[in-house]
Predict the 3D structure of the following.
Amino acid sequence: MKKMKSGFKRELARKGASVLISALVVSSTTLTITVAALMFSDNLLRIQLDVSEFEQARNVLMTLADMIEDVSANPLSAHYVRFNVRTSRPCFMDDYSTISVTVEGLPEPVVQGKSGVIKVEGGPYVGTVEKKVLLGEDRLIVGDISEPLAALFEEQNEGARLWLDYLRVRVTSLGCFYYYDAGNGLRGYLNAVRIAYVNLTVGKTIGTGPVDIVARSVSTRLSTVIIQNNNVTVRVTVDGDRTEEITLAGLETAESGGVSYPVVGTILQVLVSEVEVISE
């Protein structure tokens, strides 16, 4: 009888130990699943936040490009846009690229200098395509007055990256008109061509927390020169190794009152607007 009781107790002890071990296994498994789920949720949240911030940066740079175009056409004006920075890294780089604009027949460049660029690097969880143009054209010369002088690129280069620059000029024909200069004794019909360029410079910047990016017009310079040719060839070179060229064919004759007059050359206008970008 005593042996039966002791055997029964051992059986109960084994069953109790089995229940305890099962409970521990279930608890540890549940804890592991819970921790894994929390880590997954945290990573998913980080991805969503990084992607949302990169989309915000894209919209901010689109707005900034419009602002720069606007203030370049309105001397002494300024606008700003706010950018909330968490994991993105805005970089304002002054004098990043060189640009030279020459006109055939003139001994010196009509535009020569260095231009800044604005770059935003996305967070570690953001990816994008190899390269695409979000605004403007990947060209050095634009011809339509409605085309922006800005170009905004999105690319994958050691992480997702946005890139805004103004490394191009707008070359447009303004028509033909009668010109009279009593001082130089010059009179006659001239074609008119305008070259417009926005010189982007970078002032004081900060790069963390909520950032107000300010674009302000610093100066606007308009110079004119008359060339003895009805065709104007403009060449733009960036960083010494990328070149584009365009030739505008002007009128050879102009009619007034039923009489045809010869066009004696071209008056060239060069409009340079300096815009400074700062963050505060």
Q: What stands out?
A: The chain has one domain: 44-279. The radius of gyration is 33 Å.
